[in-house]
Amino acid sequence: MSLSVPDLNLRIIAPVLIVAISALVVLLGELVTSSAQKRGLGYASLVGLLAAGGAAMGLWDAHAVAFREMVRADNFGVFLTLTILAGAVLCILLSFDFTRAHRIETGEYYALILFSVTGMLLMVTAADLIIIFLALELLSLPLYILAAFKREDERSLEAGLKYFLLGAFSSAFFLYGIALVYGATGTTNLARIAASAPSEMLLIGAGLLLVGFAFKVALVPFHWWTPDVYEGAPTTITAFMSVAVKAAAFGAFLRAFLVALPALAMDWRVVLAIIAVLTMTLGNVAALLQANIKRMLAYSSIAHAGYILIALVAMGGAGVSAALFYLLAYTLTNLGAFGAVIALGEGERERLNVSDYGGLARMQPLLAAMLTVFMLSLAGFPPFAGFVGKFLIFGAAVQNGWAWLAVVGVLNSLVSVYFYLRPVVAMYMSEPVEGWGAPRVAPLVALALVLALIGVIALGVFPAPAIALAAGGLGR
Amino acid sequence: MIPLPFYLLLAAALFCIGLFGALARRNAIAILMGIELMLNAVNINLIAFWRYIQPAAPTWDLAGQIFALFVITLAAAEAAIALALVIAIYRSRDTVNVEEVDLMKW
Amino acid sequence: MTNYLWLVPALPLAGTIINAIFSRKMPRWLVSIIGVGSVGLSFLVVLTQFIALLDSDEPHRVINVSLYTWIPVSDFKIDVAFLLDPLSAIMLLVVTGVGFLIHVYSVGYMAEDENYGRFFTYLNLFVFSMLILVLGNNYLLMYVGWELVGLCSYLLISFWFHKPAAAAAGKKAFVTTRVGDFGFGLGVLLIFATFGTLNFDQVFHAAPQMFAVGAPVMTIITLLLFAGAVGKSAQLPLYVWLPDAMEGPTPVSALIHAATMVTAGVYMVARSHELFALAPLSSEIVAWTGALTAIFAATIALVQMDLKRVLAYSTISQLGYMFVGVGVAAYGAGIFHLMTHAFFKALLFLAAGSVMHAMGGVIDMRRLGGLRGIMRWTYLTFFAAALAIAGVPLFSGFFSKDEILAAAFGSGHIVLWAIGLLTAGLTAFYVFRAFFLTFHGAPRWETEHATRPTGHASQDAQHAAVHPHESPAVMTVPLAILAVLAALGGFVGMPSVMGHNWIAEFFHPVFGAHEAHLPPLTEWLLMGASVAAGLVGIATAYWFYLARPEIPVRLAARWSGIYDLLWHKYWVDEIYSALLVEPGRRLAMWLWQSVDVGTVDGFANGLGRTVAGASRVLRGWQTGYARAYALMMLIGTVIVIGWLMLR
After folding, report:
1. Distance between CA atoms of C158 and A429, rounded to whole angstroms?
2. Cβ <8 Å between C605 and A355
3. Is residue A8 part of a domain?
4. Which structural domain, as residue segments, surrounds residue A247?
5. Nearest alpha carbon to residue C222 among C260, C188, C192
């Protein structure tokens, strides 16, 4: 009998560690800061995230595994790590003034975001179902709290409770799926699962894994929580959830299904294709008549999950890189859109109804133009990031013989233009509504918006470098 | 040795009981208990699988066992958060009935 | 020389950006200089490119200018690259040239508008989008321009959004053209799937090698592309948006109808001619759609009383001609007609706008008349345009229309030719009807004012303000330039029996040198027939509306069924509404109410937050949903597992 020391390669999980440590620092900092100093904790979080980003860049082309093949540093993971960190940075930039206005400016707020980011980063680098499950929970638990963070707001509490109950419920299925996969193959390592023979039990396990992932990325019919939670949660958290959770969960989803279960692809591809159609269609149709902008963006995020799922169905290098590019484009665009909503808030009041956006083009022409760009990008309008993303995904589907799925996607993105343009039409083509002053945009929010805008336009007009990075590939 | 399917059936039955509890009860705490039952049912699965995959005990591949321990820890963390949420809801709404927590709807 | 090609779209884009950001802080004259100047400079650049193209010999007249790699896709890349060849050069001249004149005219027309800067921002963006569409050397870039044009048309048509009709018209244009866009988008995807590339030269090179004439794939691709053209170029059955589009400011109508937007479809078909050549069935469908649209819209135009509406239906009809041209493989003729049409249709619209300007917004021909003496320039230029569209010999429309009809006849499509001939007669009639009703006869605006019953205070106020006057020089000079072009522009493409067809030769590098020559006698006879049709139309209009004005009234009474049918535009809008719009709305409502029950819907939206607070209490009594969600998720899980196990 021999004791082997596990291959502790801390460099590979350096981004995760840095974020985790900054989360702890911020949490401790909460104890020693006065209420006027909470802003500093936000800055500390930013520093931690940027440092993690630097560490992640150092892992580019590292192609290494560590901890008994439980985590893997490949360019796929690094790309998603950077995407998630970018989303988190923008979210924190948006949070400074939002948390103050909504009286939730505490160290825990930032610490919980950082803990959640820790889970996300772990999730996209995990090469083992155990780590994926733990990362999923580490990602989710802080979000349950954050969704309910505005404690005196009943809607926020309700969002937290619903998210928690349904999230825990879906976790149980996910866990059952992992147990069955483990039982069928005798391992939880993704690469070794792929090496073992397919069986009925593995198929059921795969189905339950699918349910777990589908819940996190909000695929029909596991999307029910999304509109309620997105509406109730504080807007900055909604923004964060809508992009970062999606990137992390899709990262693990892609990795699990493409690395561990390619042998069963014949079976799950059809299921996922049908789910993609349902998801896109329900998301877009339900958003059509939605007057509450947060709910509208919630349904829109469901629809976008459907588009990304097409890339998974398409499989292959083209599918993976399309999904990665789309996640990056979607992260910047959606944060921009939510950022504009946040920027337009007045104290604790927010412009939640589409009609609240009337006449803004005259009062805030630049902000209106930005929101227009974000909405057009979400709708897949050229020449913005969303258009290139959709083109890559539909192109990958067409190339891999899923043309009909691309057709449904094209039709859906045409439909989606209508509801995305509704706030735009309100801003440009109706009179200002009573009861709203001229909005003043805080400098940090403006910074976040400008960063997102630059990203959306750059990814739309000069997408080639990002596409090259996204094509870095998935390590097996 | 008791055959593996017996364990699996026990776990499946326990999972379904938990599932029923989670779906049928209105009290948030009771739903939480149902979910905990589901998680523990999976734990039985994990341990049973581990035992039958590694019959020549003891070995150093403890994935199933370790995972079960993680799940237990995690269930505790989930319970902590759930109770905090339920208390916060109870404070503001005077109820722990999830039927009555429905401000936001489709 | 082609190093400067990128400036062509870049200048209007710069104009857009500058005006979008600074127009509120800049004086109007600066906004005008930037808005008009950017397009003017762009036109000058186009001229230099055009001259360079003329100087080079034929094989060197197709130039690809790649700026940078846009989207790399597996083995190949899609560039942001421009294609300069005779086809795009002519389109560029039309877009920037006519566009420039319309910009100049707008300075006068929009002088009073409070959103002057916004207007020029959109207008420049529109020109930019159209230039991208025309210049792109691959289908994806063309699609970008295509979508942007649609967006701009929406913005511009509903520019006066406080007018409900304008807002509705913008929406209608957007919705309707998107039906076609869906086809175009699918066509592009299918091209990508078939050829693995979207670059024009690669696709056109590969297509004849991979497919025989009549291959089903080519037919499907071309039909999908044509679906896009039907939407953008307002052909049957998607034409319904164009007549309403005149709710926008008149320069916008001129821009949409003449220089940009609607010509996109014709251009795209002409650009894809290598594909259409492999799909005879699609070409046949293109030609027939064009012919039917031409006569359909022309009959509607016969009875309309709104001057701009007459012109709108005339545009649809003339676009039909162009599709007949490209459908019978006379691509050069189609584009030639596109060019002459841009001249005379822009002129007609701008002149109509001048009338509207003078009459304080009145556009109903029953309240015009007798403006000949008051608006000398407008009158003369409108007359030139009317002669051109009616196909009076030596005016531009004569040459281009004749070339299309000759091509239709020559390719054996006698029925298409006959429809075209009939349409030519109808065209001459409705244009001169509009001309006579607007400028000749007794003025009807004063008399109507005198006899109008009381009780229409606002209407009366508007009438009292009518003091017809000639428009300022900034508006009449563009009219005059366009009149010269409309009159003489046709001489670049004279039929072979009369002289040298320069433009057809210019197109050789693009369309090849295979135009069919009819025997001279046949050609003269065809020409005679179309001239005769035009003259009969003009004479009838004169007879009906100046000599014997009671005849049309009698006819309308005698044939009231037909008159009603035409007056209501064959009830197409109503039919669409009943068949498509209403069920669609119902479906959406149903989905909303069943999938989306009891949202923060009616209550929170309509009655405000107070009621929402009260309804909150009521909703508290309703059954909870978190468990319902869980149940749905369980059902979903069972279905997923069941599917995986059973198949």
Report:
1. 8
2. yes
3. no
4. 14-470
5. C188
The identity of residue C102, as a single letter, is I
pTM, full prediction: 0.89
Cα distance between residue C174 and residue C532, in whole Å: 40
B100 in any annotated domain:
no
Asked if residue B75 belongs to a domain, the reply is yes
The first and second tokens of residue A159, run together, are 């969002």
Residue with tokens 């009594």: C621
Q: What is the pLDDT of residues C122-163, one digit of tens each?
A: 889 999 999 999 999 899 999 999 989 888 888 888 888 777
Residue pLDDT, tens place only, A342-377? 998 888 888 888 888 888 888 888 888 899 999 999
| Confidence label for C262 from pLDDT (cuts 50, 70 and 90) | confident
Report the distance separating Cα A186 and Cα C250, nearest Å: 74
C543 reaches A (C-beta below 8 A): no
Q: What is the pLDDT of residues C195-220, one digit of tens each?
A: 888 888 888 888 888 888 888 889 99
Partner-chain contact B45 A179, CB within 8 Å: yes
Q: Is residue B105 part of a domain?
A: no
Q: How many Å apart are CA A286 and CA C576, to the nearest integer?
A: 24
Q: Is the pLDDT of residue A229 over 60?
A: yes
| Closest residue by Cα to residue A181 from A145, A206, A158, A218 | A206
> Closest chain A residue to B43 measured between Cα atoms?
A179
- In a domain? residue B98: no
3-state secondary structure of C335: helix
Please give the tally of structural domains in chain A: 1
Token couple for A111: 């610490």
Q: Hunting for tokens 């990075």 — which residue is that?
A: A469
With residue A234 as reference, give the H or E element that holds it: none
Structure tokens at A177: 């799926």
CATH code of the domain in which B35 resides: 1.10.287.3510
Rounded-to-integer distance, Cα C197 and Cα C189, Å: 10
Question: Residue C441: is it exposed, middle or buried by C-beta count within 10 angstroms (0-12/13-18/19+)?
Answer: middle
| Cβ under 8 Å to A: B residues 32-71 | 32, 35, 38-39, 41-42, 45-46, 48-50, 53, 60, 63-64, 66-67, 70-71
Main-chain phi, psi angles of C413, to 5 degrees: -90, 75
Give the residue carrying structure tokens 């339950």.
A208
Would an 8 Å CB–CB cutoff place A268 in contact with chain C? yes
Whether the ω angle into residue A383 lies within 30 degrees of 0, i.e. cis, is yes
Domain count, chain B: 1
For A132, name the nearest residue in chain B, comparing CA atoms only: B67
* Tokens describing residue C352: 């109509």
Beta bridge partners of residue C306, listed in sequence order:
C364
Tens of pLDDT, residues B27-62: 999 999 999 999 999 999 999 998 888 766 555 677
